[in-house]
Each structure stands twice: as C-alpha cells, then as structure tokens.
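Action item from last meeting closed. Structure (142 res):
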C-alpha cells in the first residue's frame, strides 16, 4: 500500500538545525534556540491529523517512509522506517529519529538523516522563515 500525506509549515529565524540524531516538525508557532532538532514550525498537521490510511500503512512491519522537504527550489530527501508500535499521538510534534526509539511523537525511525545532515542552503531558507512543503510517502509493500 502506498499512501501520501502533505504537511505545510514554515521555517523560523531561531532554528539551529544541528541535532545529530533527530529532526522535528511542530505545530508550535515559535522556537527557542534550544530546539536544535526543529526544522519546521507552524505545521498544519501532527500525528493525530494524519489519515487513518496513512497511519495503517506506516504501522506495517516493513513500511518505508520517504520524506521530501521542498523550500523554493531546494529539496531534501530523507529515508526512514515505520513500525507497528508507532502511535502518532502527540498533538503538536512529529519527530524523525536515526535511532529505533519510539514514543508518541515519533513519525519514523532509523532515518538516513538528522537535522545536522540537511543541506545548509535549504537550512538558510528555513531560517529565513520561508514556507516548506513536506511530502510523506509511505510504502508498506516492501
């Protein structure tokens, strides 16, 4: 089963985008400089807002999740994995992790990139508060 969700958000001037293990998309409107994993704010969706079909596909044992960030003419692609234990229950945050840790905020595990790995030209646009389109493409037919 292949399912697509689209999240729209924007960057913020206080984002550091330097975390080595995770990156986060949040519905929160602002961020302090302590949030080094945050890559997008003011998101229009979090876990509870994702479709039942998307969640079901992501919770398959070998679900592959491709995340595509588009900011202007810049694009960042991240590969990550779903898991049957993902609850996607956090009301504001979606976190993608290089580790296998799962909590209510977790969207994907064993990710190919963390915040620090994002291209610096894309990060510069995010810090300039530009709008970002985030495509979440889950394939559970693997």
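Sequence:
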């Amino acid at each position: 089963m292949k399912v697509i969700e689209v999240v729209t958000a924007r960057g913020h001037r206080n984002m550091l985008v330097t975390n080595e293990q995770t990156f986060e998309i949040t519905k929160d409107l602002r961020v302090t400089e302590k949030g080094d994993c945050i890559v997008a704010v003011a998101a229009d969706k979090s876990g509870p807002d994702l479709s039942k079909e998307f969640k079901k596909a992501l919770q398959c044992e070998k679900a592959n999740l491709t995340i595509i960030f588009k900011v202007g003419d810049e694009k960042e692609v991240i590969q990550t994995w779903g898991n049957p234990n993902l609850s996607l229950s956090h009301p504001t945050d979606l976190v993608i992790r290089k580790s296998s840790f799962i909590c209510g905020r977790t969207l994907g595990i064993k990710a190919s990139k963390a915040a620090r790995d994002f291209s610096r030209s894309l990060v510069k646009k995010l810090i300039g508060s530009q709008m970002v389109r985030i495509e979440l493409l889950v394939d559970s037919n693997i």
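Note appended to the action item: The chain is about 10% helix and 35% strand.
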